[in-house]
């Protein structure tokens, strides 16, 4: 069991450096999961669609191999009476009590599976083919946090107050902002809506015939049924449950003192693997997305249709969760300063758009990330306020180009300043007000 666990952790530990297409900045880290309903007719297609979708590019990918799917019929090999989710089906919306039970059920599953421990192991690069050879490192933290090697060298940090502050900063900025998003996706098909429409019209038609003594009502119901049968569509109901890695000074102290080792130390590695209480995920928020009027303009195969609808539905939930939960807010760098041929300032470019929920009424703070020279910790200073420029919002939703949607060919969204000081490339955009920002 221990060897299987350490092998999986090692597989998950290797992460490539972030692409340099955009300016480097600290993203939140995210793992996404799916509640798979094999009993549903299109459950398999939703599974394939989800499995083919990448993590949203405004988050660092913290996916754990082999832990992306919760099979609702046979949850991680655990057959028991309380397993299974309350499902949103056609004609049934989940109640507040059912949502809470689903959220708690998922938290229990994730912690029973020790998901948080896998996430910590991935952060600290657990490697080694056996327990005797296994070690941790801080390479991923250096890469994602833009720290130099000495800043997060655990052995050095534990000897100085400044070093401990750097480790604490990495914990607050990186580990604390690590999330798992569990998506429970069910659907409505045209056939379900057609059946409901025919049933409703049949009842109405029968009543009309009873009143008039004729057959006009039945003819009306038949015509309505034919219209309903010709309707094509596939709409998903997506319930997203957000969980956050618990990481604070007390948890960090246990990890650094009893578990972390940069050189082979079987006792510390065994202590980490055997610890079933320190590392936990906590439920923080839920979001529900269902657009009954959604229409896709492009010509899609059924597989691509399902993939596109699922991608957009999950993106909408991520946007709503970011607005709802402070720690989940997306930070995006100012990509470039835009000027015309005469050198006159026309705006600021950022690679964010409709996928992230931007519209003409959106407002963003521009902040500068600074390091406190006394504590070594990161702080954010307010610089300006901006809003999207009308007609210049990038439609970067999944397959927007295929649909030839307005704004799909733009390379970025253009913002204009409404208040504040000088904006420079690399400064960060954060939607709404961010509590960590100082004036």
How many structural domains?
Answer: 2
Distance between the termini: 52 Å
Number of helices: 12
The count of β-strands is 14
H/E element order: HEHEEHHHHHEHHEHHEHEEEEEEEE
**Assembly level:** single chain
Structure description:
It is a single chain. With 439 residues, this protein is an alpha/beta fold. The chain folds into two domains: 275 residues, no CATH class; 110 residues, no CATH class. 35% of the residues lie in helices and 21% in strands. The protein is built from twelve helices and 14 strands. Strands 7, 8, 9, 10, 11, 12, 13 and 14 form an eight-stranded mixed β-sheet that branches. Strands 1, 2, 3, 4, 5 and 6 form a six-stranded mixed β-sheet that branches. β1, α2 and β2 form a beta-alpha-beta unit. α2 crosses α12 and α8 runs antiparallel to α9. The longest helix is centred in the middle third of the chain and has 23 residues. It is flat and about 60 Å long.
Q: Which terms summarize this structure?
A:
single chain, 439 residues, 2 domains, eight-stranded mixed sheet, six-stranded mixed sheet
Give a brief description.
The chain has two domains: 2-184 and 235-326, no CATH class; 329-438, no CATH class. The chain has twelve helices and 14 strands. 35% of the residues lie in helices and 21% in strands.
Break the fold down into its secondary structure elements and pairings:
Blueprint: H1 2-11, E1 28-36, H2 43-52, E2 59-61, E3 69-71, H3 96-112, H4 115-123, H5 139-145, H6 154-157, H7 161-175, E4 178-189, H8 190-212, H9 216-230, E5 234-245, H10 249-259, H11 266-274, E6 281-289, H12 302-324, E7 331-333, E8 336-339, E9 345-350, E10 364-371, E11 378-388, E12 413-420, E13 428-431, E14 437-438
Parallel strand pairs: 1-2, 1-3, 1-4, 11-14
Antiparallel strand pairs: 4-5, 5-6, 7-13, 8-9, 9-12, 10-11, 10-13, 11-12
